[in-house]
Amino acid sequence: MRLYSTPTSPFARKVRIALLEKNIQCDIENVNLRDPEHAGREKNPLGKIPVLVRNNGEAVYDSAVILHYLELFHPEPALLPGDPEEKIRCLRLEALADGIMDATIAWVQEHRHSKDCQDLTLIGKQRSKVQSGLAYLQEQSQRWTQSSDKPLDLGQIAVIAAIGYVDLRAPEFLVPYADLHRWYQSLRDRPSVAETSPQ
Ligand SMILES: N[C@@H](CCC(=O)N[C@@H](CS)C(=O)NCC(=O)O)C(=O)O
């Protein structure tokens, strides 16, 4: 299998953490998203990464579908709870974390424009999505205990990727959420988290 990725993509990080947690061998190919001809583009008509190319050549995207694929075809260790209620909570957490990533990316892209070209309404709107998402995660994180021998669940994997990305691009956003940041830091040395840390 081959994963088209970038070193900083939080969506690709979700997949990279899951691959490591499940101990699945996969070639990682970093692409340059600024290159209109990048290798992942022909595999996904949207031109987005991550894209996982299976051994039979078939492409799987987006990150949520890739995680689903890994769970179906490489079920051990399970990243989703068996109980239906817990499973939906876990998938909802993934959706929230993905939303935080989307809003952070939109905020970063707008913020990169020169000051006189920035859409301040958009910046404010995206920032507030990130903040309310983080506030909810902070509340949830009180219930998350993690031991190094227990696999992460899929929701937590997505949350790690989201917090790591906010920490990379706008660390000041995390300041009001010290407990959440502490939870993230407590996982820093876990191999799947350490090896995928965005540089
Ligand atoms: N919903 C998608 C989002 C993927 C995404 O936004 N990827 C970004 C990199 S973090 C990308 O490829 N951007 C390039 C583009 O939009 O052309 C997923 O979960 O995989």
Keywords:
four-stranded mixed sheet; single chain; binds glutathione; 7 helices; Glutaredoxin; 2 domains; alpha+beta; 51% helix; 199 residues
Brief overview, please?
It is built from seven helices and four strands. It is an alpha+beta fold and 199 residues long.
How are the secondary structure elements laid out?
Layout (H helix, E strand, L loop, with lengths): L1 E4 L4 H12 L5 E4 L20 E3 L5 E2 L2 H11 L10 H28 L8 H22 L12 H16 L8 H9 L4 H4 L5
Parallel strand pairs: 1-2
Antiparallel strand pairs: 1-3, 3-4
Helix pairs in contact: 1-2, 1-5, 3-4, 3-5, 4-6
Bound molecules: glutathione.
Glutathione binds next to helix 2.
Characterization of this structure:
This protein has 199 residues and is an alpha+beta fold. The protein folds into two domains: 2-73, Glutaredoxin; 84-193, Glutathione S-transferase Yfyf (Class Pi), Chain A, domain 2, CATH 1.20.1050.10. The protein contains seven helices and four strands; from the N terminus they run βαβββαααααα. The protein has a four-stranded mixed beta sheet with strand order 2-1-3-4. A hairpin with a 5-residue loop joins strand 3 and strand 4. Helix 1 (10-21) runs parallel beside helix 2 (63-73). The protein is globular and about 50 Å long. The model has no long low-confidence stretch (mean pLDDT 95). The site of glutathione (GSH) has 11 residues, from helix 2.
